[in-house]
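Q: Convert this sequence to structure tokens.
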Amino acid sequence: MIKLNLVQGTKEWLDTRLSHFTASEAPAMMGVSKHISRTQLLDHKKGWTTEVDAFTQKLFDAGHQVEEMARPLAETFTDEDLVPVVGVLDGTKYLASFDGISMLGDILFEHKMFNKVLAENVLNSVLTPEYYWQLEHQLMVSESDKVLFVCSDGTEDKFYSMWYESVPERRAELIAGWEQFEKDLAVHEPKAKTEKVIAQVSKDLPMITYQMDGMALTSNLSEFKSAALQLVDKANQEIETDQDFANAEAHQKVFTKAEKDIDSLCDRVLGEVQDISVFVNDLREIKELIRQARLAENKQIKTRKEEIRQGIAVSANKALYDHSINAMAELKVACPSLSVDVVSAMKGKKTVASLQDAADSELAKGKIEVDGYAKTASSNLATLKEFAADYRFLFADWKDIAFKQCDDFTALVKTRISDHKESEKARIDAEREKIRLEEEAKAQAKIKAEAEQAERQRQQEELEAKRLQSETEEKLVVDDSPKAETNHMRHPMDKQPPREVATRQAQKKPVTMTYEPLAQWPSDMDRAENETLDEICNQLAEAEDYIEYLKSNIHGVAA
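A:
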């Protein structure tokens, strides 16, 4: 906080307040002040000057005097001196004039004139918005810990106090309120003020007088009728302004009284004279005119009030709707339902000015609420862009989650992305495992097929070896048979093998088979992980060893 060298009540102080947003103005800005409306505050900030009457100034002076008397009493609670100070929050327009502040600036003092209701509230440590918005603003400007709020008449007998500490939700609402106020102030145009509405004097209709002169009756009925018709004409005029409403309601009282007076006069005349039908008929005709005028004007009063009320409400609601649409346009989401209710805010307001001010104040609250939602959604959208640029498909429900609290939304984004990554990892791992199993099955099938092929080749080679062995044995038999004493004496036919041997040889066909050893064996790791594969590999190895064994035997025999 920056302390300003200003004395409260001086012209320099007033000029500085005009260009800042002050603590004492906070209740009016929030639309809860009993003394000044939000519209009046806007006018004031635009430079509208209102003279302070002598009575009001006297109240101000009395308030300052009582405040000075109460300060020493307050210091007994704080054990510190409480010095009046004017300060502004650095870098902002937020200003506060403190009734007292401690040397370290951690404690504030705020004093209000004694009244019974406020004293009872303070005694129970509760405050209405009219008071706590000012305190909240003071704590924001001073950045103090707490404020001693006092209601007193300057004496110990009527000295009531309570401690108030900042409420975070109120602080946020206060700042949003001032931000909206500044926007409204930029486009606000003060309107000419009118005097307090007082119904124009509507004189009662003249009293009807009559006199009997024998059988003749004389009266001022024509004068009365003329005055009544003039009032009826006024009643038929359209009602627009607060002044019109005040005048119309005054007419109602005159009409009601006139009707009663005529009824009373008719009864009295009928009791005095027997043949006065013309006079009585005229009276009753005038009465009916008055009655119809009263009813019509009363209906117009109610109708116009409702039309004006509805017109103001519709205008405010439309402005709020347009503001909501514009605020949410870039966010691609509809604004949630708002807590503001223009119609309810206007209840109990009787003048056009008070209706308009109530609607404007509620409109401002609605805009603040819309801007709060927009700020939250905008922050959440930024979170999506930062953390989920590649995962926007996970947030198709954006319209349902856009207005979650920012911390909760960030946690939701991270959780969804983390869950998606885990799911994807599990899916990819499953696909890899499936591929691995398929490849393993193919490898096992290939090994099995090669083993079967090797077994078939082994069997064929074994058969071939047996055949060769058989032929060799037959050859040895032939070679060991008795030979002729002299070869030159042998008949050429003697060189042929015996018939049965020749026949066997003729029946046998040479078989040519080749076997290529397995070029690449499964790894030790694959065999260790798969018992079936390992068993097949062992069998294939035995088969190859046996084939080598047969080959060596066959070659040996052939040699």
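Residues 411-479+495-558 form one domain.
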